[in-house]
Amino acid sequence: MNTYYIGLDIGGTAIKIGLFDNNDELKQKTEIPTRLHLSGAHILSDSVEACSKLLDTEDVDWNSVQGIGVGVPGLVKDDNYIVRCVNLGWENVDLGKELYALTKVRNVRAINDAKAAALGEWWKGGHGQCSSAVMITLGTGIGGGVIMNGQIVNGAFGSAGELSHFPLVPDETEPCACGKFGHLQQYASAEGIVHQFCKKLRIENKPTILSNHENLTAKNIIDAAREEDKLAKEVFDDAVKKIAQTMAMVTSVIDPELFLIGGGMSKAGDFLIDAIRKEYRRCVILFSEDTRIEQAVLGNDAGIYGAVKYVMDHIKREAS
Amino acid sequence: MNTYYIGLDIGGTAIKIGLFDNNDELKQKTEIPTRLHLSGAHILSDSVEACSKLLDTEDVDWNSVQGIGVGVPGLVKDDNYIVRCVNLGWENVDLGKELYALTKVRNVRAINDAKAAALGEWWKGGHGQCSSAVMITLGTGIGGGVIMNGQIVNGAFGSAGELSHFPLVPDETEPCACGKFGHLQQYASAEGIVHQFCKKLRIENKPTILSNHENLTAKNIIDAAREEDKLAKEVFDDAVKKIAQTMAMVTSVIDPELFLIGGGMSKAGDFLIDAIRKEYRRCVILFSEDTRIEQAVLGNDAGIYGAVKYVMDHIKREAS
């Protein structure tokens, strides 16, 4: 009998689902909208319904499913209990129990979505064999995931890889969303870049091709920086400096073989990656100037790959 | 037959040697001066001679020795080849080969001395069971060691745990000893604290009880800070801030269960540790405010413990 594994990536707007066979191959995938009302009470039943349709297309049933891996945008406890997920309206969701009730699948493993993306990209992004890697996801916020010995690192309180709240600028007077000060995402996330740009525009009142732009995005600013717009370039350069400095610090801690840059901002491609490489080399410890820095390639699929890998590894460990 | 293990900690002024039995107990220890002339050519034979004397006191010979672990102040390749050790005058020393020639012991494992100290303190410092810990050694320079899953992390280029060169202050104009800028040890090592104090004294010309002090040490400055000397307090507070900020960053990467503060400066005890705890709590990511932060207790013995643990673990892995 063929066996299957399911990777779920539950986000605030969409739920991505991948059905994998026991050769680690993605057989089917789909995406459904996330219904947020009633504190996200429909999310799991909607997901299971969509999974059932995928199983139908392969002409198999839930008995063939060995495990379900779930990426969620929040804090996970004990690998299957969701303490809180603001974006989904979830609090204290026992994912293992609830999904078992709906599917009779015993192996359910939940993982923070940024960690899932890191694990998936490391596993199936085609970046070659390496046992340690760190992914930085530059999106609306900033996510991160640390892989060592081929496994995601969670840490004592689940904070490993939380590069969004990397306390870079001790003297910052504006608070981060978390209430503390000077965190990386205040400067280098898509939201942070827009915020810093608007702040500079307001205070310094420098000329910029974006001065009359409405609904400014990080992409607009990066594009303007590419065109040598002075103000946009200043904000972009500062973001790059802070990302590279953070990476250099990561290297002084675990010295990974590979950095992966993902998230919406990474679509800026070589313009961003080359700038990060140059700045990283400038500030990192001497011996580690040649760390590989690569653009993530799986995009939105990284999460389902990572979620399924997480439960697959769990099942293998249990069996050994 | 009882079996034994040897831990060597080779420093620029002294070689510390510990003889351990197969119950992980330190049976004998000794210390000899490091003879640096002839590019450190006598170091290994001196060490072996001193080890032989220790073995004699236990009435056993080299045949009973299962392994030798060696801590060295430099970069180690492949666990037994020393690329360069400036303090010892060593370049390209094949430690495994040379110690085998002198002792016929096959299991020789070398480890950077700061990493050895971390491993030793984690293992035998009485800090309770934990699988992940980070030690920061605040001495003349700054050393570090990262332990995950009970093993020291070396990293892709051997730079893991190199907290001395943590690139904290991107705008620094004075170079670190390594030639790059704004590294932690420029502000928070014993040497760094003295340097920052003298610089402040020269530039700001503030009154201080230390103004006529000759041969100023970090201890003098920390003692003066304790007595509320304003200038000394400024320098001390800045060092504490930077140490705590570095630790908070380490937490955003791997979120360890335990931080250990060692090295000569750690003798300042609670005055230093409490200040670090307070500052750490202020800047670390919300969920991890309660990370344990403890003073290292093994002092100069940490290195021999760590070196011997390193070779013991290697032998266990080989056997399994």
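qc> Chain A has a mean pLDDT of 94.
qc> done
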